[in-house]
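Standup, Tuesday
Yesterday: got the pipeline producing structure tokens again.
Today: sanity-check two examples.
Blockers: none.

Example 1:
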Amino acid sequence: MPTRRLFLNGMASAAFIRTSGAATPVVVSSKLDLEGGLLGEMILLALGQAKIVAENRLRLGPTSILRAALLSGAIDLCPEYTGNAAFFFHEDGDPVWKNAAAGYARAAQRDYEENRLVWLAPAPADNSWVIAVPAALAEKQNLRTMEDFASFVRDGNRVKLAASAEFVESNAGLPAFEASYGFRLEASQLLVLSGGETSATIKAAADGISGVNAAMAYATDGALKALGLAALEDTRHAQPVYAPAPVIREETLASYPEIRGILKPVFAKLDLASLRDLNEKVAVEGAEPGAVAREFFRLQGLLR
């Protein structure tokens, strides 16, 4: 899942610098996480079908490294999330990021004006933070939304949440949920795990480790269904929208303007359910991301 709020100031190191030229391929990259790699494979497949020569630099590093590489021109094209732009431009307190269309428009405007980076059409999916609970508990207690969860907490029911320190401490994480829905989890109701990988938090909730029955997760986590967890809907939009979108250097897009139209129908097919299912094939079933991307193209009529 996408690494957040781990950004570097300034330009990339000299190790990122590459030479330019008319015959230089489009360098496609992504973050280390599973979903980033999967989206990168889709970009590579789409470009390959269009006979655009591309270089595979997928799973380059966390957000900080990928962003620095893109700003320096070491890479040309990568998937990014609209919500991360709030942190790129130090606007994480602005409610604009909680609206999918408005947040995308702000990201596109700021990145083009300041960096000549172009945000192409986003996916309708939202990979924001969510709280997930065991499906059996959700069914028994009628927990479908964060409003339901807040009532459950206020009524004094037993709740223990597994989460990262960042989620617990960041204003954009648990405090945003608590403020929006009017509940409060005490320290004794939290299991703070080092590292903050959602794979660990959702496993804790699924297995009931240390009494955990709720977990920090990402909305598109592929293992949610396999582990029998239900993600609670953020009906009041406490979280920024993290819609995936391709981001490309203006110079590269000028050389290959057809990329805009090539990638638009691909990302348009990536709604929350489909992206979660695709992640499950890789994370749970162990499928190779490139093969998952190709099968998705085939099923969606995108394979040529």
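Example 2:
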Amino acid sequence: MRVLIVEDELRLAQTLRRGLELEGFVVVTAATGDEGLRMAVSDTFDVLVLDIMLPGLSGYEIVRRVRAQQIWTPILMLTAKDGEYDQADAFDLGADDYLTKPFSFVVLIARLRALVRRGAPARPVTLTVGELELDPARRTLTRGGIDIALTPREFGLLEFFMRHPGTVLTKAEILRNVWDANYDGDDNVVEVYVGYLRRKIDAPFGTHSIDTIRGAGYRLTADHALR
């Protein structure tokens, strides 16, 4: 799951990033309202976390402009303010939830997962490709009803594949969406994790789901039996 955090308090943004990454989220951060709006409208996220008081555009203005462009990504607002009118303003503009600082990280995670479960109108709660069924909110994966345990990174990689079935995805696209927009390590890490996935979702079942497209990338297909 990809989350955009727009927060100008550097220490808080870094703390949220580390905590969410440990929970399996792919986190992108922005420190100003203008930067946050640009990312929100030009990229794809599962949920947006916006501070209200920001340099440049406020969180309110980001919500207004995002919704004006008919982008329905769930939005959770953060603020040091604590008043019913602030909450009403956020909801009236199109926000989906609201937390007042300081807040419990456990509560934040629960709220974010609830928003992802509801999702944007066109996003299915459960992703299905062949016999694979992945629930992003509950962090579960089954093949033919059999549970499969994945690490957070493996889960994020498979979720990205399952959101784009039949599409050839380049290593650069995978790194940007599953690792980090600023990842500058060896892109062979993708090949390594595809191997991990194959050993868990295919090898025990005698199936083949992830094709290697030489010179292009990888493609998830409806599973078929190995010959």
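Quick observation on example 2: The helical segments are 10-22, 33-42, 59-68, 84-93, 105-118, 152-162, 171-179, 188-202. The radius of gyration is 19 Å.
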